[in-house]
Amino acid sequence: MIDEFEAWTEFLGADYSSFYIGIFVGSLFGIFAQKSRFCLRSAVIEFWRRQKGHMVPIWLLAFSFAFFLTQLLIFNQSIDVSKINYLNAAGSLSGALIGGAIFGIGMILARGCASRLLILSATGNLRALFSWVLIAIVAEQTIRGFLAPSRSFLASLYSVSPSTRDLSLSLPEGTGIVFGLILIFFALFLSVKAKLRFWQYFTGIGVGVAVILGWVLTGLHASVSFDIIPVQSISFIAPSVEVFRASLALSPLKPGFEIGMIGGVFAGSLLAALISQEFKFAFFTKESGFVRYLFGAILMGFGGVLAVGCSVGAGLSGVSVLSLTALASLVTMIIFAGLTDKILNG
Question: Where are the domains of the chain?
Fold first, then answer.
């Protein structure tokens, strides 16, 4: 099977192989996330308001399976962690904490994180599409525009080495697997208590499996290719910037995992919405507001770059490989999103 995969990648070339892998992984994520209503913002609101609902169990199903299976594959040396940027490069703990907090505030204001807004865009929600495009614009300015000096200053406040960033180096061997199993049992307990239906289990776990496939397929591609292939999984800030730059011809459209993944998520979400007859155009209204989406998107664009990841890029993919900075980002996202919801809604 590996020989066939290697032959396929050689036939297509490194760029197009990565592109089609991205489409495949992104499409699965889009379908599962749309059908399960996977959303960190909704889960955070449900958690902090102490509501009994489906969003926390579904989010935890995705998170726990992504975490456990990724750790299991790392333990079996099926994923080469030396090629994962979350672990093999120095990181910024100050950027993770401050960026995560800013992103958490933004996703409450915009009623969705970057991934959820892209998924909603595919269902006809033009409010979400506007917010997603604005996130990409602000993220672009944060990376290489007028916001870059501020991002660099905040990120430089507290840097950590790769050895510190990789939490597995500070923990007993197999800790990730054990903790992942505990998370799965807890997620299943909450799911049974919430009386989830079979399709909610299936699609919630499916979101986590899509993250796994990202690590596995890009890792396999890296192992058989003569080109330098980054081992990565699903994220939305940097890929959104790449799509935005290519769409405005600011940079050449180069096929790769990130471009394919964004397109795949949109296509998968659109397909799921059409099949379930959930596609419906939605615009800004007096009730929905406009200003909160505007500020929410701006905050997520800046915070996501500063934190080096969004609620999926850091919160699922990054934490699944035990990255300290990703974990810090996720924790501050949850805390500040909860505080923002409390302030806005009592």
Answer: 2-345
DSSP alpha helix (H) spans, the chain: 2-12, 14-36, 40-48, 55-75, 85-88, 93-109, 114-122, 126-144, 148-155, 162-165, 175-193, 198-224, 237-247, 257-275, 291-306, 319-320, 324-345
Which pTM was predicted?
Answer: 0.95
Is the separation of the CB atoms in 41 and 112 below 8 Å? yes
Q: Which two tokens stand for residue 59?
A: 């989010």
CA torsion, ordered 191, 197, 199, 204, to nearest 10 deg: -20
| Phi, psi (rounded to 5 degrees) for 92 | -115, 115
Residue 116: which residues within 8 A CB-CB, separation 6 or more? 33, 38, 39, 40, 41, 107, 128
Extract long-range pairs of 342-345: CB within 8 Å, 24+ residues apart: 342/48, 344/108
d(CA 138, CA 118): 16
What's the pLDDT at 246? 84
C-alpha distances in angstroms, 301 versus 40, 155, 307? 17, 15, 10
pLDDT, tens digit, 9 for 90 and up, residues 9-64: 999 999 999 999 999 999 999 999 999 999 999 999 999 999 999 999 999 999 99
Bridge partners, 46 (sequence order): none
Residue with tokens 């099926």: 78
Location of structure tokens 């394919």: 260
CA distance linking residue 61 with residue 207, whole number of Å: 9
- The neighbouring-strand residues paired with 160 are 91
- Sequence length of the chain is 346
Cα–Cα distance between 190 and 52 in angstroms, integer?
Answer: 10
Q: Are 117 and 269 in contact (CB under 8 A)?
A: no
Residue carrying structure tokens 């889960």: 43
